[in-house]
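Phosphotransferase family enzyme, Nonomuraea fuscirosea. Tokens?
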Amino acid sequence: MVVAHSERATLRVGDVFLKVDADRARIEAEVEAMASAPVPTPEVLWHKPPALAIAAVPGTALGRLGEPVTASPAAWAAAGAAVRKLHDAPLPPRLGRAGRSVEELRAELDGECEWLVTNGVLPAELVTRNREVAEAALRPWVPVFTHGDLQIAHVFLDGDEVTGIIDWSEAGQGDGLFDLAILTLGHERYLGDLVAGYGGDVDLDVIRGWWSMRSLLAIHWLVEHGFDPFAPGCEVDVLRARM
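Tokens:
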């Protein structure tokens, strides 16, 4: 068992990963995204809703949230170049996780901030400060082809070459800077290397805004599903860094 929670479960049998998801649309979106993404993705072995079987990708994950990273600056730059290639691709038909409207995000963010303070999960001043930082991400954006859940553990490399990007269930049209922020969440020191490979002008205030917003929005879900956002280097530490 790789991961299991109320939304989906992923199991590994040898070099095959079996994903089971009750949301048929999400599985179908993942298959569509992998087929059209211009970057290395897992091979789809078979697809019979609610299950999807994919082959393991070669290489090693770029890193993991809360753990030291050993990947080179060149590896981060290669990851940035792969993300740029994705963002420059033709738009997919669906809105992705990074495609929610500013109004939807603001309402969800305010609700989660209230929950964090009311339930004593985080100090009010920490929530307030990060809510201010998150505002930078709440602005108009030009939609691109986004991965939508580009965690550091979802990018695989062999040396300095990207060999695969996994977990496309949240892919679709969205804000490209969201992908860059999720990839560097908890590993902020590597943002410069990532952006060097990505190229172009990147608004770092928006990236910082997404770091705060992603962490504020995730903590409630993580706590309820048995994950620990208070672990060293994880979401709560990301919020504390903004102080």
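The chain has a mean pLDDT of 94.
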